Amino acid sequence: MRLSEGVEWSVHCAVMLAGLARGATLPGKALAEFHGVSESYLLKHLKALTAANLLESVPGPRGGYCLARSPERITLLDVVQAIDGTQPAFRCTEIRQRGPAALEARAYRRPCIINTAMLRAESAWRAELDRTSLADIARGVVKTADPRVSARGAQWLEQNCRPAHHDES
Hints:
By secondary structure, this protein is mainly alpha-helical. It has helices at residues 5-18, 28-35, 39-51, 76-84, 113-131, 134-144, 147-160, and strands at residues 55-58, 64-67.
């Protein structure tokens, strides 16, 4: 199974947003710069994450993107489905009913065993993604990242993060 690179980009951005202070945002342009990816392509995916209610898009000069809910409540499956959809990766086209050995359709009453195995494997894969939250991934990044990368990332965030806007009423 091959996921789109949009899934990779989206998970990295969502994990980065998971580390922001409540109400703080990062502009899409800054997220693209940090990850060294195409801004226009990334914005397409950030919009998909926003449409799926995983991210919130905050307009205005202090705007940008932030998580729409806590990172504990957003799973990798949520991100995958927002970007690549919910259709199964394997699609059985019943090729067993073609060719020189094919019989009439009623001879194929039992489900295709290959399709059954592939769907069972995909179900296990999706269940694992559904058990893994952005918070889990963020904790893993903190534990496994080279301290120099963490320091550079923190410095970059300090320069690019837009702090929470508080009404002064």
